[in-house]
Design a protein that fits this description.
7-stranded mixed β-sheet; Dihydrodipicolinate Reductase, domain 2; about 35% helix; Rossmann fold
């Protein structure tokens, strides 16, 4: 009997996971659920093992009905619904996977992650199941790649996770994933791990410049709200050779679009009076940002209109010591660009690396490749699990290049 999977959320990430799991012989049914019935119907039509359902993610009981007798819940919903889905997974005694740490556990997001480790970890362990948090491309793929980089070190001092979103179309398309998530990240304080402590940093601050051998020009990467420094900071001693400083830096058209809006106060979520009306600047901006393309005809039209750039980088830099000498380890992640992703799978480059990167974590559930129970973030895989992950990633032409340099 094959495994049954519930995919909550049929946006770019959830849809890609469903499509990839439809190809898995070990999967018997994929329940695809979203508030948007049109999106559900469009996805289920192209699946052979799919069944559609409408769900209100604020209704825990409704999620529970869909989760009966499933082997895994894949949560691709907005972050505010994470607690509902976590509680459902425990109640239904099933495994759990999501793409980023929920913001609904505690008002302090970092404390919420600590609570997940402290409270949900034992609860999943007690039922003999596993919850894996942060399983897209970043966080997710890049977390596993960071573990590959630190293998080359005896001790680690500083880690940079560097992401440049270099895909840019002639059409106004600043974000290739959820605009509300993207813009929310842009206007929030970022986090870094500095001198052994998790600290807040200002968005768009602390710039660094990089140009690697496959890039035409240097890019400026800045602080950006992301999970990686928090996950890795909490796990620095056990998994990252005692690293004291960990940063996530981001660049691309979405950053270029958001930074002046942020500085002008246009990403504020505080209502304000304008011409006799109360408006929320963030909501007004969001109304004018197009959704992420996810259907073939949309993606083909964007490509046909022309691209400004079809590039990017995802790089881990780990600084430390090897055999008593100071070194820098660079682990580069290579994946298909927009045109190549569309030609291969009919999806965008973001869907390819994030959705398929996420689907590889799902594939590990389907093929019983996890050795743990409890709750882990994606930087806490075993060495065997990391090797399996990247062996399967290579089959999708998602590959790594690791080099060590003296400094």
């Amino acid at each position: 009997m094959g495994k049954r999977i519930l995919v909550l959320g049929t946006g770019a990430q959830g849809s890609t996971v469903a499509l990839r799991m439809d190809e898995e012989p070990g999967v018997s049914e994929i329940v695809c659920a979203d508030y948007d019935e049109k999106a559900v119907d469009a996805l289920v039509r192209i699946l052979t093992k799919g069944r559609g359902a409408r769900v209100d993610a604020s209704d825990a009981a409704g999620i529970g009905k869909l989760a009966q007798n499933v082997d895994l819940i894949v949560n691709a919903l907005p972050l505010q619904f994470g607690k509902n889905v976590l509680e459902t997974a425990v109640a239904m005694r099933t495994n759990y996977q999501d793409f980023a740490a929920t913001e609904s556990i505690d008002a302090d997001w970092v404390n919420g992650i600590r609570i997940m480790f402290r409270d949900y970890g034992p609860r999943f362990k007690d039922i003999g199941k596993l919850a894996v948090i942060g399983t897209g491309s970043a966080p997710g793929l890049i977390c596993a790649a960071t573990r590959v980089a630190v293998r080359e070190l005896d001790s680690c001092d500083t880690i940079y996770n560097l992401v440049w979103e270099g895909v840019e179309s002639k059409r106004f398309q600043p974000y290739w994933w959820s605009p509300v998530t993207a813009l929310s990240d842009m206007c929030e304080d970022a986090f870094a791990y500095e001198n052994g402590q998790i600290v807040r940093t200002l968005p768009f601050s602390l710039p660094v410049y990089r140009q690697y051998d496959y890039m035409d020009k240097p890019v400026c990467l800045v602080e950006h709200a992301h999970d990686e420094p928090v996950y890795m900071g909490l796990n620095a001693e056990k998994y990252f050779k005692g690293a004291k400083n960990i940063y996530f830096k981001y660049s691309g058209a979405g950053v270029d679009f958001a930074e002046p809006l942020y500085r002008a106060g246009m990403l504020s979520k505080v209502p304000e009076a304008f011409n006799g009306q109360m408006i929320v600047p963030f909501d007004f901006v969001l109304k004018h940002v197009p959704p992420a393309p996810k259907y073939k005809e949309e993606i083909r039209a964007i490509i046909d209109e022309g691209l400004v750039s079809d590039s990017g980088c995802m790089v881990v830099e780990a600084y430390g010591k090897k055999d008593g000498k100071a070194v820098r380890v660079e682990t580069h992640v290579f994946a298909p660009g927009l045109v190549d992703s569309f030609n291969r799978a009919g999806i965008t480059a973001e869907m390819y690396i994030t959705g398929q990167g996420g689907a590889l974590f799902t594939k590990m559930f389907v093929n019983d490749k996890y050795d743990q129970t409890g709750l882990i973030t994606s930087d806490m895989l075993t060495e065997t699990e990391i090797d399996y992950y990247f062996a399967r990633a290579a089959e999708l032409d998602i590959t790594l290049r690791t080099e060590v340099f003296s400094v």
